[in-house]
Design brief:
This protein is about 25% helix and about 25% strand. The protein has helices at about 50-65, 110-125, 140-150; strands at about 25-30, 40, 45-50, 70-75, 80-85, 135. The radius of gyration is 16 Å and the shape is globular.
Length: about 150
């Protein structure tokens, strides 16, 4: 109990929200120490290096690994990626009942955290800082705004 909560980063997730709910999630994943691991911007154009290309390829492959997940617009920048992850369908209510004592510390299967964790592992863990930021797209106006951030 000596170090309880001392070295733990507080979550920015909504405590009352189930992140496996069907929704559109705008996320930002930053590199560790904000290092430009993915490439550089030259004359206003993003030039991906090898890791940047892997980052983009892994993003495109997210739906291949999750039957209920799609991706929308995304952009890879030198030290972060913005993207929209779409969780399309809810799981059976029976799936919400946990018999596993670790359910409090592990992300729920097919939840946003599980998807992002898998994605970050595929790209390479050393390149990312812990966690990610998300925004739950509540309506079409928010979604259009998030797409414009990614597109521009």
């Amino acid at each position: 109990m000596l170090y309880q909560n001392r070295f733990r980063k507080e979550t920015v997730r909504l405590k009352e929200w189930d992140y496996s709910n069907p929704w559109w999630y705008y996320i930002t994943i930053s590199t560790k120490n904000h290092c430009p691991f993915f490439g550089e911007v030259v004359h206003g154009n993003m030039i991906l290096n090898k890791l940047g290309i892997v980052t983009e390829k892994c993003w495109d492959e997210i739906p291949k690994h999750y039957h209920n997940v799609g991706t929308d617009y995304y952009v890879v920048m030198p030290n972060h990626i913005h993207g929209i992850i779409i969780i399309n369908e809810s799981r059976d209510v029976a799936c919400n009942v946990s018999t596993n004592k670790y359910s409090q510390i592990s992300p729920k299967k097919n939840s946003l955290s599980a998807i992002v964790r898998s994605y970050k592992s595929a790209v390479t863990k050393f390149a990312h800082e812990n966690g990610f930021t998300d925004f739950i797209s509540g309506n079409l106006l928010n979604l259009c705004h998030q797409r414009s951030i990614i597109f521009n």
